[in-house]
Amino acid sequence: MFFCTLIPSSFQGLGAFFILYGTLIYHVLDTFFMDNFGLETTGTIAYLSIVIGTIMVLVSFTTNFVIMYPSTKSYGVLAMVYGFTLVFVLLFCIIGFFYTPHMNGVMRIGVRNIMQNYNAKSVMNIYLDALHMQLKCCGAEDYTSWFRTSWAEGRKIVPASCCKNLKYCHNLEPLIVTDIHEKGCYKVFDNYSKIVNASYIGTIVGSILTQFIAIASAIKMALRYRAIRVIDSVLPVLE
């Protein structure tokens, strides 16, 4: 009963999680224009997550098929499929651990470079303004980072995109701090990185537990099915 219900449901749940995670990551990266900050591999982790999620959903359907049409060989193959799926998930999480600090570092460099060249009439200014408004942050370390840019020219001012409410924001002199987002974008990047890494750790633990149980269950079912076939083959046929 456990194998017939919980195992397929677990794989469907994990698959849905990976697909949703990949979709959200891709949406966030696309929304915040990270490619324009120099991160040319924004889609890699998102695509990989969606592919793994799709594989896990297919594995759940395969499990249901084997349950409907059982055989010793099919359960053995299913155990191998579970093993390969676990390897894919672990590789994904390892890649993710290396990818997250890379993404964080490139975003930091991108923000700093755009701030230093904010005077230039460039489309990059729009990307940074969008980042400010979407993440509710201002500047690099904090809002005072803007004071040290050439754009500020020694004044204590921040761009309008740092305002909490553009309609009632006094972003020019004199600066009213309560009207703007004081937190720097670096802190937001760090917080997101911690959340992402925590999700990788949770995924590793959950996948190892789920798939080891699935592998053990598949092997157990294969042995049980073989034993039943052996018993059936030696029982006398009553006429």
UniProtKB/TrEMBL annotation:
Subcellular location field: Membrane
The keyword Hydrolase is assigned to this record: no
Pfam family, one: Tetraspanin
Subcellular location, principal: membrane
Tagged with keyword Hydrolase: no
Topology within the bilayer: Multi-pass membrane protein
Annotated TM spans: 12-33, 45-67, 79-99, 198-219
InterPro entries (UniProt xref): Tetraspanin/Peripherin (IPR018499), Tetraspanin_EC2_sf (IPR008952)
Gene3D superfamilies to which the protein is assigned, alphabetical: Tetraspanin
Keywords, comma-separated and alphabetical: Membrane, Transmembrane, Transmembrane helix
Taxonomy, superkingdom: Eukaryota
GO cellular component, as recorded: plasma membrane
Protein name: Tetraspanin
Biological source species: Araneus ventricosus
